[in-house]
Amino acid sequence: MEEIIANKEVLSKLLSGIDKLANTVKVTLGPSGNTVIIANEYGKPYATKDGVSVSNYIKLKDPVENIGALMLKEVAKKTAEEAGDGTTTSIVLAQALITNGIKFLNNGGNYNQIKEVYATVLPKVLNLIKESSTTITADDIVDVATVSANNDRKIGELIQVAFNHSTVVKVEEGKAIKDSLELITGVTYPVTYFSKKFITNEAKNTAEINDAVVLLLGCKLDKLDNLKRILTYCNKEEKPLLIITEFISDDALHMLETNHINNALKILAVKTPGYANYRNEYIKDLSDLTDSIIIDDLSKMVEVERLGRIKSVTVKSNETVLIPHDDIDIEQRITNLFTLSKQPNLGGYDKKILLERIDNLNGKVSIIKVGAKSEIEMKERYDRIEDAVYAVSSALEEGVLEGGGVALYKIADTLDVDSSKSFWIKLINIFKRRKNPYKLILNALRAPNKTINENGAKVNPFIFDDYTVVDPTKVTRCALENAASVALTILGTKAVVLNEHLW
Predict the structure, then answer these.
(1) Cβ count within 10 A of residue 463
(2) Over the stretch 172-208, which tens digit does the pLDDT of each residue have?
């Protein structure tokens, strides 16, 4: 049985769901953002200032309203995946764009006009974002982190120390009351998981396992028949299994996914770094790093003695970070690779690969261990610190803008053709805006700054000169692009078809 909701009623209900989610999430925005307390599926309270964490727990009873909320969740999720932060900003922008767009449609406008204006205005905004961006320095890191951590300077300073040690910074729950920082050796490769079903943190699209055994394959994984002893051992010892291989067949991957999803065994399968002949060299590096014996033949039963071990693994959509156990010594391998790189007859590309491998094995990782007096405080602080770390990473990639939503506000003023006109002309144009989608988009760009002010941080874009309040350019860009994408989709919606199990 199906129900069809059409025409104006569908946009009204979608907007109702969008407002319910956005109005709950956006109270967390800005340096004075507020806390939201969530009761999880077990009724246990959980406090957070992380927008995407709040949105993940919201499920509305009305199925059409819930669809609107789900589409907004996707905006936050995609921004978190791309930039690590800015989830609330993307929700605020999306809500403003959708609300203004529906007003325009209800006052006689049409969707083609909206599409045309989006195609004209958004490239200009994105170009001005790029032009307004400035490169971040080591001294700026503390400011970026402080703003993202809801104006907590101590967190900003800790994150600055972490990034001074390494560009790879992890966040973990600590066992002490105070935060601490551990500086260790770690290796990063530009590879990812074979399947998103291995993800352990859906909000950030990451997969992580600790104290795992390692199955290092120099061959393709077609079947699991001869891995029974390995799987039995991991299950008995309650050890997670990290599989590193070039290829996994669909059948084998499905079986691994099923084991992981059903909690029969914690499994993470990642791709071997490198390609062609260079892949074999990377596998040798991984063998030393994990104390594994490389398995090149799966036609016979694989013995447990050939497994390696790893302290922790974190896999993102574009990289894998491996932290070896403290007793693993890879200095000799680094020395041997360095000697090889000095050979006079070595080709330019071969030398480049060798130096890349040396850099990987010489890698460093900073681990921030979050301290707290209670589990509730731990969750709240963990979310803030993790967001701040991602914000700094994004800032290092694309630079920073004036913070507090000021950059978008000023861009809106720059593009506003009426910004230099008199008060009376502006007053007249208030009535014209109802039929001017150009104005409605520009007004949406001002929404983040207005929300931040409503939350208690007085950031006036006209007298703003606090250069310690900055936003990562990548975060702002991704938030706007993703918000605009979902806004166009919703504004072009004329009907929703509901399956019986949804209502």
Answers:
(1) 7
(2) 899 899 999 988 888 888 899 999 999 988 877 889 9
CATH of the domain at 273: 3.50.7.10
Asked if residue 139 lies in contact with residue 157, where contact means CB atoms within 8 angstroms, the answer is no
User: Using the 8-state DSSP alphabet, how is residue 304 labeled?
Assistant: G
Residue with the two structure tokens 């909690």: 263
Asked if 449 and 462 count as a contact pair (C-beta separation under 8 A), the reply is: no
DSSP string, 92-105: HHHHHHHHHHHHHH
Residue environment code for 403-428, b if the CB has 16+ CB neighbours within 10 A, otherwise e = bbbbbbbbbbbebbebeeeeeeeeee
Contact partners, residue 69, CB within 8 Å, separation at least 6: 17, 18, 20, 21, 55, 58, 59, 60
**pTM for the structure as a whole:** 0.75
Distance of CA 378 to the CA centre of its chain: 20
Angle CA 319–321–325, to nearest 5: 165
Q: What is the pLDDT of residues 66-97, one digit of tens each?
A: 999 999 999 988 888 888 888 899 999 999 99
Domain match, 419 and 489 both? yes
CA dihedral (127, 130, 132, 133) in degrees, to 10, reads: 170
Q: How many Cα atoms are found within 13 Å in the side-chain-facing hemisphere of 368?
A: 32
Are 378 and 370 contacting, i.e. CB atoms less than 8 angstroms apart?
A: yes
Element (H, E) at 320: strand 320-323
User: Could you tell me if residue 379 is inside a domain?
Assistant: no
Reference 294, options 235, 246, 359, 357; nearest CA is 246
**Identity of residue 500:** E
What SS3 state is found at 469?
A: coil
Which amino acid is located at 407 in the chain?
Answer: A
**CATH no. for residue 458?**
1.10.560.10
CB atoms within 10 A of CB 327: 7
Give alpha helix (H) positions in 362-422: 375-398, 406-415
Does residue 19 contact residue 95 with C-beta atoms inside 8 Å? yes
The model's confidence at residue 3, banded by pLDDT at 50, 70 and 90, is low
To which residue do tokens 């993307």 refer?
Answer: 90
Structural domain boundaries enclosing 289 = 187-328
**φ and ψ at 47, to 5 degrees?**
-100, 135
In a domain, 333, yes or no: no
Question: Is 294 within the bounds of a domain?
Answer: yes
Q: Which of 295, 328, 361 is the last residue of a domain?
A: 328
- Alpha-carbon distance of 220 to 247, in angstroms, equals 5
Those residues whose C-beta lies under 8 Å from the C-beta of residue 178, and which sit 6 or more positions away, are: 371
Place of tokens 């993102």: 316
Q: Which two tokens stand for residue 408?
A: 């978008």
8 Å CB contact between 117 and 365 = no
